[in-house]
Automatic annotation (TrEMBL), chain A:
SUPFAM superfamilies: MetI-like. It is a multi-pass membrane protein. InterPro entries: ABC_transp_perm/SBD, MetI-like, MetI-like_sf. CDD domains: TM_PBP2 (cd06261). The lineage of its organism: Bacteria, Bacillati, Actinomycetota, Actinomycetes, Micrococcales. One of its GO terms (cellular component) is plasma membrane. It is found in: Cell membrane; Membrane. Pfam families: BPD_transp_1. GO terms for biological process: glycine betaine transport; transmembrane transport. Keywords: Membrane, Transmembrane, Transmembrane helix, Transport. This is ABC transporter permease. PROSITE patterns: ABC_TM1.
Automatic annotation (TrEMBL), chain B:
The lineage of its organism: Bacteria, Bacillati, Actinomycetota, Actinomycetes, Micrococcales. It holds the Pfam family BPD_transp_1. It comes from the Bacteria. One of its GO terms (biological process) is glycine betaine transport. It is found in: Cell membrane; Membrane. It is a multi-pass membrane protein. The keyword Lyase does not apply. InterPro entries: ABC_transp_perm/SBD, MetI-like, MetI-like_sf. SUPFAM superfamilies: MetI-like. Keywords: Membrane, Transmembrane, Transmembrane helix, Transport. This is ABC transporter permease. CDD domains: TM_PBP2.
Length: 221, 212
Protein backbone atom coordinates (compact mmCIF):
# COMPACT_ATOMS: atom_id res chain seq x y z
CA UNK A 1 0.00 0.00 0.00
CA UNK A 2 2.99 2.28 0.60
CA UNK A 3 3.81 2.20 -3.10
CA UNK A 4 0.28 3.32 -3.83
CA UNK A 5 0.68 6.37 -1.59
CA UNK A 6 4.03 7.22 -3.16
CA UNK A 7 2.49 6.88 -6.61
CA UNK A 8 -0.27 9.25 -5.57
CA UNK A 9 2.29 11.76 -4.25
CA UNK A 10 4.11 11.50 -7.57
CA UNK A 11 0.88 12.17 -9.45
CA UNK A 12 0.00 15.34 -7.54
CA UNK A 13 3.39 16.94 -8.21
CA UNK A 14 3.42 19.39 -11.11
CA UNK A 15 6.92 18.21 -12.16
CA UNK A 16 5.58 14.76 -13.01
CA UNK A 17 3.27 16.18 -15.64
CA UNK A 18 5.42 18.82 -17.37
CA UNK A 19 8.30 18.45 -19.83
CA UNK A 20 8.69 16.57 -23.12
CA UNK A 21 8.75 13.18 -21.37
CA UNK A 22 6.39 14.17 -18.56
CA UNK A 23 3.21 12.28 -17.79
CA UNK A 24 1.13 14.96 -19.55
CA UNK A 25 3.02 14.58 -22.84
CA UNK A 26 2.91 10.78 -22.50
CA UNK A 27 -0.83 10.77 -21.84
CA UNK A 28 -1.35 13.00 -24.90
CA UNK A 29 0.77 10.64 -27.04
CA UNK A 30 -1.20 7.72 -25.69
CA UNK A 31 -4.47 9.38 -26.65
CA UNK A 32 -3.13 10.16 -30.13
CA UNK A 33 -2.09 6.52 -30.66
CA UNK A 34 -5.54 5.41 -29.58
CA UNK A 35 -7.34 7.85 -31.89
CA UNK A 36 -5.06 6.96 -34.82
CA UNK A 37 -5.40 3.20 -34.36
CA UNK A 38 -9.17 3.27 -33.83
CA UNK A 39 -9.57 5.78 -36.70
CA UNK A 40 -7.72 3.60 -39.20
CA UNK A 41 -9.56 0.51 -37.93
CA UNK A 42 -12.89 2.29 -38.39
CA UNK A 43 -11.95 3.21 -41.98
CA UNK A 44 -11.44 -0.50 -42.65
CA UNK A 45 -14.16 -2.05 -40.51
CA UNK A 46 -17.08 0.35 -40.94
CA UNK A 47 -17.47 -0.08 -44.75
CA UNK A 48 -16.81 -3.82 -44.48
CA UNK A 49 -19.28 -4.25 -41.62
CA UNK A 50 -21.96 -2.20 -43.37
CA UNK A 51 -21.52 -4.25 -46.53
CA UNK A 52 -21.94 -7.48 -44.57
CA UNK A 53 -24.95 -6.13 -42.67
CA UNK A 54 -26.58 -4.61 -45.74
CA UNK A 55 -26.18 -7.45 -48.21
CA UNK A 56 -26.38 -10.19 -45.60
CA UNK A 57 -23.48 -12.00 -47.30
CA UNK A 58 -20.10 -12.91 -45.91
CA UNK A 59 -21.48 -13.03 -42.40
CA UNK A 60 -19.93 -16.40 -41.60
CA UNK A 61 -16.57 -15.17 -42.81
CA UNK A 62 -16.86 -12.06 -40.64
CA UNK A 63 -17.83 -14.09 -37.54
CA UNK A 64 -15.08 -16.62 -38.13
CA UNK A 65 -12.32 -14.04 -38.69
CA UNK A 66 -13.45 -12.09 -35.63
CA UNK A 67 -13.11 -15.22 -33.50
CA UNK A 68 -9.77 -16.18 -34.99
CA UNK A 69 -8.29 -12.73 -34.45
CA UNK A 70 -9.41 -12.78 -30.84
CA UNK A 71 -7.14 -15.79 -30.26
CA UNK A 72 -4.18 -13.92 -31.77
CA UNK A 73 -2.00 -12.58 -28.94
CA UNK A 74 -1.39 -8.86 -29.46
CA UNK A 75 2.07 -8.98 -27.88
CA UNK A 76 3.03 -11.66 -30.40
CA UNK A 77 1.81 -9.61 -33.36
CA UNK A 78 3.57 -6.55 -31.96
CA UNK A 79 6.95 -8.22 -31.54
CA UNK A 80 6.64 -10.05 -34.85
CA UNK A 81 5.93 -6.85 -36.80
CA UNK A 82 8.53 -5.08 -34.66
CA UNK A 83 11.19 -7.55 -35.79
CA UNK A 84 10.23 -7.00 -39.43
CA UNK A 85 9.86 -3.20 -39.57
CA UNK A 86 12.09 -2.24 -36.66
CA UNK A 87 11.36 -0.12 -33.60
CA UNK A 88 8.96 2.79 -33.81
CA UNK A 89 5.28 3.46 -34.23
CA UNK A 90 4.61 1.15 -37.19
CA UNK A 91 4.60 -2.14 -35.26
CA UNK A 92 2.24 -1.00 -32.48
CA UNK A 93 -0.11 0.55 -35.03
CA UNK A 94 -0.37 -2.70 -37.01
CA UNK A 95 -0.94 -4.68 -33.80
CA UNK A 96 -3.53 -2.25 -32.45
CA UNK A 97 -5.41 -2.13 -35.75
CA UNK A 98 -5.56 -5.93 -35.87
CA UNK A 99 -6.93 -5.79 -32.33
CA UNK A 100 -9.54 -3.10 -33.03
CA UNK A 101 -10.91 -4.14 -36.44
CA UNK A 102 -12.90 -7.23 -35.24
CA UNK A 103 -14.74 -5.31 -32.50
CA UNK A 104 -15.78 -2.50 -34.85
CA UNK A 105 -16.65 -4.99 -37.58
CA UNK A 106 -18.85 -7.06 -35.24
CA UNK A 107 -20.61 -3.98 -33.88
CA UNK A 108 -21.22 -2.60 -37.37
CA UNK A 109 -22.68 -5.68 -39.00
CA UNK A 110 -24.83 -6.51 -36.00
CA UNK A 111 -25.97 -2.88 -35.99
CA UNK A 112 -26.97 -2.95 -39.64
CA UNK A 113 -28.60 -6.37 -39.16
CA UNK A 114 -30.48 -5.35 -36.04
CA UNK A 115 -32.83 -3.19 -38.08
CA UNK A 116 -36.22 -4.88 -38.43
CA UNK A 117 -36.35 -6.36 -41.97
CA UNK A 118 -39.90 -5.04 -42.30
CA UNK A 119 -38.58 -1.51 -41.83
CA UNK A 120 -36.02 -2.11 -44.59
CA UNK A 121 -38.77 -3.55 -46.84
CA UNK A 122 -40.98 -0.55 -46.10
CA UNK A 123 -38.14 1.81 -47.04
CA UNK A 124 -37.66 -0.09 -50.28
CA UNK A 125 -41.40 0.03 -50.99
CA UNK A 126 -41.26 3.80 -50.54
CA UNK A 127 -38.86 3.87 -53.46
CA UNK A 128 -35.62 4.39 -51.48
CA UNK A 129 -32.45 3.44 -53.29
CA UNK A 130 -29.89 1.05 -51.73
CA UNK A 131 -27.75 4.00 -50.61
CA UNK A 132 -30.73 5.76 -49.10
CA UNK A 133 -31.73 2.61 -47.21
CA UNK A 134 -28.19 2.27 -45.91
CA UNK A 135 -27.65 5.89 -44.90
CA UNK A 136 -31.16 6.93 -43.90
CA UNK A 137 -32.42 3.69 -42.33
CA UNK A 138 -29.82 1.08 -41.44
CA UNK A 139 -27.01 3.33 -40.18
CA UNK A 140 -29.18 5.61 -38.01
CA UNK A 141 -31.18 2.72 -36.52
CA UNK A 142 -28.09 0.57 -35.99
CA UNK A 143 -26.08 3.46 -34.55
CA UNK A 144 -26.17 2.40 -30.87
CA UNK A 145 -24.64 -1.00 -31.73
CA UNK A 146 -22.14 0.57 -34.15
CA UNK A 147 -21.00 3.00 -31.46
CA UNK A 148 -20.88 0.07 -29.03
CA UNK A 149 -18.37 -1.67 -31.30
CA UNK A 150 -16.20 1.44 -31.47
CA UNK A 151 -16.46 1.82 -27.70
CA UNK A 152 -15.16 -1.71 -27.16
CA UNK A 153 -12.34 -1.11 -29.66
CA UNK A 154 -11.30 2.10 -27.89
CA UNK A 155 -11.17 0.27 -24.55
CA UNK A 156 -9.05 -2.54 -25.94
CA UNK A 157 -6.71 -0.16 -27.74
CA UNK A 158 -6.24 2.26 -24.85
CA UNK A 159 -5.10 -0.59 -22.61
CA UNK A 160 -2.98 -2.37 -25.17
CA UNK A 161 -1.30 0.83 -26.41
CA UNK A 162 0.84 0.51 -23.28
CA UNK A 163 2.77 -2.16 -25.16
CA UNK A 164 3.79 0.38 -27.85
CA UNK A 165 6.64 1.50 -25.61
CA UNK A 166 7.92 -2.08 -25.54
CA UNK A 167 9.02 -1.70 -29.16
CA UNK A 168 10.40 1.79 -28.76
CA UNK A 169 7.38 4.05 -29.27
CA UNK A 170 6.00 6.46 -26.64
CA UNK A 171 2.73 6.72 -24.80
CA UNK A 172 2.04 5.90 -21.17
CA UNK A 173 3.87 2.62 -21.60
CA UNK A 174 7.16 4.58 -21.62
CA UNK A 175 7.08 5.57 -17.92
CA UNK A 176 5.63 2.13 -17.13
CA UNK A 177 8.52 0.20 -18.69
CA UNK A 178 11.03 2.69 -17.28
CA UNK A 179 9.61 2.01 -13.84
CA UNK A 180 9.64 -1.74 -14.46
CA UNK A 181 13.30 -1.79 -15.52
CA UNK A 182 14.51 0.46 -12.71
CA UNK A 183 12.31 -1.13 -10.01
CA UNK A 184 10.70 2.30 -9.56
CA UNK A 185 7.36 0.96 -8.33
CA UNK A 186 5.76 4.36 -7.63
CA UNK A 187 6.43 5.44 -11.25
CA UNK A 188 5.14 2.09 -12.54
CA UNK A 189 1.98 2.46 -10.51
CA UNK A 190 1.50 6.12 -11.38
CA UNK A 191 1.62 5.35 -15.12
CA UNK A 192 -0.80 2.45 -14.57
CA UNK A 193 -3.23 4.62 -12.65
CA UNK A 194 -3.17 7.32 -15.34
CA UNK A 195 -3.99 4.80 -18.07
CA UNK A 196 -6.74 3.22 -15.98
CA UNK A 197 -8.23 6.69 -15.44
CA UNK A 198 -7.96 7.43 -19.16
CA UNK A 199 -9.71 4.16 -20.03
CA UNK A 200 -12.52 4.70 -17.54
CA UNK A 201 -13.05 8.30 -18.71
CA UNK A 202 -13.18 7.25 -22.36
CA UNK A 203 -15.59 4.46 -21.50
CA UNK A 204 -17.89 6.83 -19.65
CA UNK A 205 -17.76 9.30 -22.55
CA UNK A 206 -18.62 6.64 -25.11
CA UNK A 207 -21.32 5.23 -22.85
CA UNK A 208 -22.95 8.67 -22.79
CA UNK A 209 -22.74 9.01 -26.59
CA UNK A 210 -24.22 5.51 -26.96
CA UNK A 211 -27.13 6.27 -24.66
CA UNK A 212 -27.81 9.55 -26.46
CA UNK A 213 -27.81 7.75 -29.81
CA UNK A 214 -30.19 5.13 -28.45
CA UNK A 215 -32.56 7.80 -27.16
CA UNK A 216 -32.46 9.80 -30.40
CA UNK A 217 -33.03 6.73 -32.54
CA UNK A 218 -35.98 5.61 -30.49
CA UNK A 219 -37.20 9.01 -31.57
CA UNK A 220 -40.67 10.49 -31.70
CA UNK A 221 -42.19 7.24 -33.05
CA UNK B 1 12.88 -23.90 -38.17
CA UNK B 2 16.24 -25.03 -36.76
CA UNK B 3 15.69 -22.79 -33.77
CA UNK B 4 12.31 -24.36 -33.06
CA UNK B 5 13.72 -27.90 -33.33
CA UNK B 6 16.59 -26.99 -31.04
CA UNK B 7 14.26 -25.46 -28.47
CA UNK B 8 11.31 -27.86 -28.33
CA UNK B 9 12.03 -28.52 -24.64
CA UNK B 10 11.80 -24.86 -23.75
CA UNK B 11 8.68 -24.36 -25.86
CA UNK B 12 7.00 -27.33 -24.16
CA UNK B 13 7.97 -26.02 -20.74
CA UNK B 14 6.57 -22.55 -21.48
CA UNK B 15 3.40 -24.14 -22.89
CA UNK B 16 2.89 -25.89 -19.56
CA UNK B 17 3.57 -22.62 -17.69
CA UNK B 18 1.04 -20.93 -19.92
CA UNK B 19 -1.58 -23.61 -19.26
CA UNK B 20 -0.90 -23.29 -15.52
CA UNK B 21 -1.68 -19.56 -15.74
CA UNK B 22 -4.69 -19.59 -18.01
CA UNK B 23 -6.60 -22.79 -17.18
CA UNK B 24 -7.07 -22.06 -13.45
CA UNK B 25 -8.05 -18.50 -14.37
CA UNK B 26 -10.75 -19.69 -16.80
CA UNK B 27 -12.07 -22.20 -14.26
CA UNK B 28 -12.04 -19.70 -11.38
CA UNK B 29 -13.71 -17.03 -13.50
CA UNK B 30 -16.51 -19.47 -14.36
CA UNK B 31 -16.98 -20.80 -10.81
CA UNK B 32 -17.04 -17.29 -9.32
CA UNK B 33 -19.25 -15.78 -12.01
CA UNK B 34 -22.17 -18.20 -11.85
CA UNK B 35 -23.06 -17.55 -8.17
CA UNK B 36 -22.65 -13.82 -8.75
CA UNK B 37 -24.97 -14.05 -11.75
CA UNK B 38 -27.54 -15.97 -9.68
CA UNK B 39 -27.32 -13.32 -6.98
CA UNK B 40 -27.70 -10.58 -9.58
CA UNK B 41 -30.86 -12.17 -10.92
CA UNK B 42 -32.39 -13.02 -7.53
CA UNK B 43 -31.86 -9.61 -5.95
CA UNK B 44 -32.88 -7.21 -8.69
CA UNK B 45 -31.56 -4.07 -6.99
CA UNK B 46 -28.10 -5.68 -6.98
CA UNK B 47 -28.22 -6.59 -10.66
CA UNK B 48 -26.95 -3.32 -12.10
CA UNK B 49 -24.08 -2.91 -9.59
CA UNK B 50 -22.95 -6.54 -10.01
CA UNK B 51 -23.21 -6.80 -13.80
CA UNK B 52 -21.96 -3.31 -14.64
CA UNK B 53 -19.43 -3.33 -11.82
CA UNK B 54 -17.71 -6.49 -13.02
CA UNK B 55 -18.10 -5.26 -16.61
CA UNK B 56 -16.19 -2.13 -15.66
CA UNK B 57 -13.23 -4.37 -14.81
CA UNK B 58 -12.94 -4.90 -18.53
CA UNK B 59 -12.25 -1.18 -18.90
CA UNK B 60 -9.17 -1.57 -16.73
CA UNK B 61 -6.26 -2.17 -19.11
CA UNK B 62 -4.59 -5.54 -18.67
CA UNK B 63 -0.97 -4.51 -18.14
CA UNK B 64 -1.75 -1.95 -15.42
CA UNK B 65 -3.96 -4.49 -13.66
CA UNK B 66 -1.08 -6.96 -13.66
CA UNK B 67 0.89 -4.25 -11.83
CA UNK B 68 -1.71 -2.76 -9.49
CA UNK B 69 -3.10 -6.10 -8.31
CA UNK B 70 0.05 -7.37 -6.54
CA UNK B 71 0.13 -4.16 -4.52
CA UNK B 72 -3.41 -4.89 -3.35
CA UNK B 73 -2.91 -8.65 -2.90
CA UNK B 74 0.55 -8.37 -1.41
CA UNK B 75 2.01 -10.83 -3.92
CA UNK B 76 5.18 -10.11 -5.88
CA UNK B 77 4.83 -8.51 -9.29
CA UNK B 78 6.54 -11.50 -10.96
CA UNK B 79 4.50 -14.02 -8.98
CA UNK B 80 2.42 -16.28 -11.29
CA UNK B 81 -0.38 -16.19 -8.70
CA UNK B 82 -0.80 -12.51 -9.40
CA UNK B 83 -1.21 -13.20 -13.13
CA UNK B 84 -3.82 -15.88 -12.39
CA UNK B 85 -5.76 -13.44 -10.19
CA UNK B 86 -5.67 -10.70 -12.84
CA UNK B 87 -6.76 -13.12 -15.58
CA UNK B 88 -9.58 -14.39 -13.35
CA UNK B 89 -10.87 -10.85 -12.89
CA UNK B 90 -10.79 -10.27 -16.65
CA UNK B 91 -12.64 -13.51 -17.24
CA UNK B 92 -15.28 -12.47 -14.71
CA UNK B 93 -15.73 -9.15 -16.48
CA UNK B 94 -17.14 -11.07 -19.44
CA UNK B 95 -18.56 -14.13 -17.69
CA UNK B 96 -20.79 -12.51 -15.05
CA UNK B 97 -22.79 -10.63 -17.70
CA UNK B 98 -22.97 -13.67 -19.94
CA UNK B 99 -24.15 -15.96 -17.12
CA UNK B 100 -26.66 -13.42 -15.81
CA UNK B 101 -28.16 -12.99 -19.27
CA UNK B 102 -28.23 -16.75 -19.85
CA UNK B 103 -30.08 -17.39 -16.58
CA UNK B 104 -32.39 -14.47 -17.25
CA UNK B 105 -33.33 -15.93 -20.64
CA UNK B 106 -34.91 -19.04 -19.05
CA UNK B 107 -38.60 -18.46 -19.73
CA UNK B 108 -40.76 -17.40 -16.82
CA UNK B 109 -43.42 -19.99 -17.75
CA UNK B 110 -40.93 -22.83 -17.38
CA UNK B 111 -39.82 -21.52 -14.00
CA UNK B 112 -43.42 -21.15 -12.83
CA UNK B 113 -44.24 -24.64 -14.07
CA UNK B 114 -41.29 -26.03 -12.13
CA UNK B 115 -42.38 -24.16 -9.01
CA UNK B 116 -45.93 -25.52 -9.48
CA UNK B 117 -44.49 -29.06 -9.73
CA UNK B 118 -43.10 -28.53 -6.26
CA UNK B 119 -39.45 -27.83 -7.00
CA UNK B 120 -37.61 -26.00 -4.26
CA UNK B 121 -35.72 -22.98 -5.53
CA UNK B 122 -32.44 -24.86 -4.92
CA UNK B 123 -33.68 -27.91 -6.83
CA UNK B 124 -35.07 -25.78 -9.61
CA UNK B 125 -31.73 -24.04 -10.04
CA UNK B 126 -29.83 -27.31 -10.56
CA UNK B 127 -32.41 -29.21 -12.60
CA UNK B 128 -34.23 -26.49 -14.56
CA UNK B 129 -32.43 -23.12 -14.69
CA UNK B 130 -28.87 -24.36 -15.05
CA UNK B 131 -29.51 -26.97 -17.80
CA UNK B 132 -31.58 -24.49 -19.81
CA UNK B 133 -29.09 -21.65 -19.41
CA UNK B 134 -26.12 -23.97 -20.01
CA UNK B 135 -25.72 -23.58 -23.76
CA UNK B 136 -25.70 -19.76 -23.57
CA UNK B 137 -23.27 -19.90 -20.65
CA UNK B 138 -21.02 -22.18 -22.65
CA UNK B 139 -20.93 -19.58 -25.44
CA UNK B 140 -19.74 -17.00 -22.90
CA UNK B 141 -17.19 -19.39 -21.45
CA UNK B 142 -15.72 -20.02 -24.90
CA UNK B 143 -15.09 -16.30 -25.37
CA UNK B 144 -13.52 -16.15 -21.90
CA UNK B 145 -11.23 -19.11 -22.56
CA UNK B 146 -9.94 -17.77 -25.88
CA UNK B 147 -9.33 -14.26 -24.60
CA UNK B 148 -7.73 -15.47 -21.36
CA UNK B 149 -5.22 -17.65 -23.19
CA UNK B 150 -4.36 -14.79 -25.51
CA UNK B 151 -4.16 -12.24 -22.68
CA UNK B 152 -1.94 -14.44 -20.50
CA UNK B 153 0.97 -13.74 -22.85
CA UNK B 154 1.03 -10.09 -21.71
CA UNK B 155 2.30 -11.09 -18.27
CA UNK B 156 5.60 -12.03 -19.95
CA UNK B 157 6.66 -8.38 -20.16
CA UNK B 158 6.62 -8.37 -16.36
CA UNK B 159 8.76 -11.49 -16.24
CA UNK B 160 6.11 -14.14 -15.52
CA UNK B 161 7.05 -17.18 -17.66
CA UNK B 162 4.43 -18.10 -20.27
CA UNK B 163 4.23 -18.52 -24.04
CA UNK B 164 4.57 -14.72 -24.05
CA UNK B 165 8.21 -15.22 -22.98
CA UNK B 166 8.80 -16.50 -26.51
CA UNK B 167 7.70 -13.06 -27.75
CA UNK B 168 9.87 -11.04 -25.36
CA UNK B 169 12.96 -13.28 -25.73
CA UNK B 170 12.50 -13.47 -29.48
CA UNK B 171 12.12 -9.73 -29.83
CA UNK B 172 15.12 -8.88 -27.66
CA UNK B 173 17.39 -11.39 -29.36
CA UNK B 174 15.97 -10.88 -32.86
CA UNK B 175 14.78 -14.48 -33.29
CA UNK B 176 11.72 -14.45 -35.53
CA UNK B 177 11.12 -18.19 -35.10
CA UNK B 178 10.70 -17.75 -31.37
CA UNK B 179 7.93 -15.18 -31.80
CA UNK B 180 6.27 -17.26 -34.52
CA UNK B 181 6.38 -20.38 -32.37
CA UNK B 182 4.78 -18.41 -29.52
CA UNK B 183 1.96 -17.10 -31.72
CA UNK B 184 1.25 -20.55 -33.16
CA UNK B 185 1.31 -22.29 -29.77
CA UNK B 186 -1.00 -19.67 -28.22
CA UNK B 187 -3.53 -20.00 -31.04
CA UNK B 188 -3.29 -23.81 -30.95
CA UNK B 189 -3.85 -23.87 -27.19
CA UNK B 190 -6.87 -21.57 -27.56
CA UNK B 191 -8.30 -23.79 -30.30
CA UNK B 192 -7.76 -27.00 -28.31
CA UNK B 193 -9.47 -25.63 -25.21
CA UNK B 194 -12.29 -24.29 -27.36
CA UNK B 195 -12.73 -27.70 -28.96
CA UNK B 196 -12.72 -29.39 -25.54
CA UNK B 197 -15.38 -26.96 -24.31
CA UNK B 198 -17.57 -27.62 -27.36
CA UNK B 199 -17.17 -31.39 -26.98
CA UNK B 200 -17.92 -31.38 -23.26
CA UNK B 201 -20.93 -29.19 -24.01
CA UNK B 202 -22.22 -31.82 -26.45
CA UNK B 203 -21.66 -34.58 -23.90
CA UNK B 204 -23.11 -32.75 -20.90
CA UNK B 205 -25.90 -30.95 -22.68
CA UNK B 206 -27.18 -33.15 -25.52
CA UNK B 207 -30.43 -31.11 -25.56
CA UNK B 208 -28.62 -28.01 -26.83
CA UNK B 209 -28.10 -29.45 -30.30
CA UNK B 210 -31.69 -30.52 -30.68
CA UNK B 211 -32.90 -27.02 -29.97
CA UNK B 212 -30.42 -25.42 -32.36
Amino acid sequence: MNHLLEAWELLIQADTWTGPTGMGARAWEHLLYTVLAVGVSALIALPAGLAVGHFGRGRNLAVLSTGAVRALPTLGVLTLVGLVVGVGLMAPMVALIILAVPSILAGTYSGAESVDPRVVDAARAQGMSRWQILFAVQIPLGLPLIIGGIRLAVLQVVGTAMLAAYVGAGGLGAPLFLGLRTYDYPLLLAASLVVIALAVLLDIAFGTVQRTARRLMRGPA
Amino acid sequence: MDWILANTGRIAELTLDHAALSLPAVLAAFLLSVPLAVLANRLRPLREPIVSGTGLLYAVPSLPLFIVLPIILGTGIRDPLNAVAALTLFGMALMVRSAAEALDAVSAEVRLAAAAQGYSSWGRFWTVDLPLAGPAMLAGLRVVSVSTISLATVSAVLGVPSLGSLFTDGFQRGIMESVLAGVVMTVVMALILDLLLVLSGRLLMPWARRRA
